[in-house]
Amino acid sequence: MKTKHILAVAAIVAGCGTSLACTNLLVGKNASADGAAMITYAADAHTIYGDLQYLPAADHAPGSMRSIDDWDTGLHHGEIPEVAHTYAVVGNMNEHQLTIAESTYGGRHELTDTTAGAIMDYGSLIYVTLQRARTAREAIQVMTDLVARYGYNSEGESFSIGDPNEIWVMDMIGKGGKEKGAVWVAVRIPDDCIAGHANQSRIYRFPLKDKENCIYSKDVISFARKMGYFNGKDADFEFSTAYAPSDFGSLRGCDARVWSYFNRFKSGMDAYLPFIRGKKGAEVMPLYVKPDRKISVRDLQEMMRDHFEGTPFDMTKDPGATNYWGVPYRWRPMEFKVDGETYSMERAIATQQTGWVFVAQMRSWMPAPVGGVLWFGVDDANTAVFVPMYCCMTEVPASYARGQADLYTLNWDSAFWVNNWVANQAYSRYSVMIDDIRRVQRSIEDGFAKHQPQVEAKALDLLKRDPAQAVQLLTNYSVDAAQDATARYRRLGEYLFVKYMDGNVKKEKDGQFERNEAGMPVQPSWPGYTPDYYKTVVQGSGDRLKVIEPEK
Predict the structure, then answer these.
(1) Helices within 318-466 (DSSP H only)
(2) Rounded to 5, what percent of the chain is helix, strand, coil?
(3) How far is residue 533's CA from residue 264's CA, in Å, rounded to a whole number?
(4) What pLDDT is attached to residue 489?
(5) Is 24 strand, coil or helix?
(6) What are the backbone angles phi and psi of residue 253, rounded to the nearest 5°?
(7) What are residue 361's DSSP bridge partners?
(8) What's the CA gap between 301 and 39, in Å, rounded?
């Protein structure tokens, strides 16, 4: 999502203030456990409501126009001509399994084009392209043609663009109204590698002569020279250094999330800790690495729940967590001052202000209606449930539908509000509640994983005989799965509220809250606080709370 200009630390530290921030993790098809190409996305914003978009396929009469409305603000930018036929889109995946996601890095603020001639914002660029392209390479062509013709009015953006056979990262930034369009570079991720971006441009040097695996605007280097961002040899040009210079926030709050992903699946990543910590002359972390093992859909789902556990940035280990039931969350603003010194909380992949999150599974050996699955969840990825949404589906589950509610309208039939209810209860006493949440979350997701082969085998068989019935089968399965998951999470929320009300913990027996022989509730447990919390209280209050027996 959109973020403010990153050249000042206070403007980004990864989602602080009013800025927004997202995380994309990518897996090449030969780096995955089942041969699927995969992309993840967490849409992190303090003003976003989590729902699932559906755009049906459509034919358009000559002369038809498409309205371009800013994805973040809803404000109207203009219109562009429609194409004769547009493809169906579910979330960020279309009917051909093409997936596009993003994260905003901002970059040089003077390059944001606010002129009236620039109408393509980054969100509109994504969804117009999903309606018009079948493959990742087609998508890059469509996106770059659109900004060249209609202008680009967003900040610097990184896009994840993938189909069942290829995964690409594209960095783009405007020209500040000095010229129309944008400068950009797109790099194909090797099939046996993983990559990621999280609100910082990740493309430094790129192969200028490898036209098969690297595509870029003809003026990507010359425009940087014209603006005074670069004056060396073409071979030494680095996109990120020129257009999005790093600072504390972009390294520690953004690239650190990618580092944590790489570190989970690739040994030796400690070598890039000096880079993350901003050490002068440190080796730049690469755009992609080859993992030590193959990565599954479930691995990516768990990675999207990361809080730097087991790393030097572990959010469960500092006093902000140990004094308060191990909660790995920090409320905004992330930056603060003590005795005149500036500090910043960590910013992990999983964060409380996520609107929705997905893991896109794109499989080349299956027909597109079955091969493309958007494992979709709403709210905080850590406590969300990833539900399988097939790219052929023709109906959105009621609990995920647009118009079901919004950020100011609580609705108990809305998956977003139910998931927020569960998550926000856990934020107050994380360590004592998370196991209860994990039990239900894993039960639901284990069920999806178990039934996926059976459902898809039936759909593949139906596809040969009656494609419409196969589409209906997968639509019904996705809708029912989402509705059931929402209902189970509502029951989970009710259970958590009853069990942990008023700081007590209700006792349980045989799967029920325990009662005595007369049917009355038994005395609950009083778990109190953590030892670190008590130490902090004593350090701050001195002898005021000390138990002193009366003198005799």
Answers:
(1) 319-322, 368-371, 415-428, 430-465
(2) 35, 20, 45
(3) 31
(4) 98
(5) strand
(6) -90, -15
(7) 38, 373
(8) 11
Are the C-beta atoms of residues 150 and 124 closer than 8 Å to each other? no
- Collapsing DSSP to helix, strand or coil, 489 comes out as helix
Give CA separation, 424 vs 45, 376, 385, 437, 496, in Å.
16, 20, 15, 12, 11
Spatial contact of 269 and 350, defined as CB atoms under 8 Å apart: no
Cα–Cα distances (Å) from 273 to 23, 258, 346, in that order, read 19, 12, 15
Contact status, residue 379 vs residue 420, Cβ threshold 8 Å: yes
What is the rounded distance in angstroms from the CA atom of residue 358 to the CA atom of residue 381? Answer: 9
List pLDDT tens digits, range 196-255: 999 999 999 999 999 999 999 999 999 999 999 999 999 999 999 999 999 999 999 999
> Distance from first CA to last CA of the chain, Å, rounded?
67
Query: Strand pairing partners for 160?
Result: 101, 169
Question: CA-to-CA distance for 405 and 50, rounded, in angstroms?
Answer: 10
State yes or no: pLDDT of 172 exceeds 90.
Answer: yes
What does the alpha-carbon distance between residue 420 and residue 424 come to, in Å, rounded to a whole number? 6
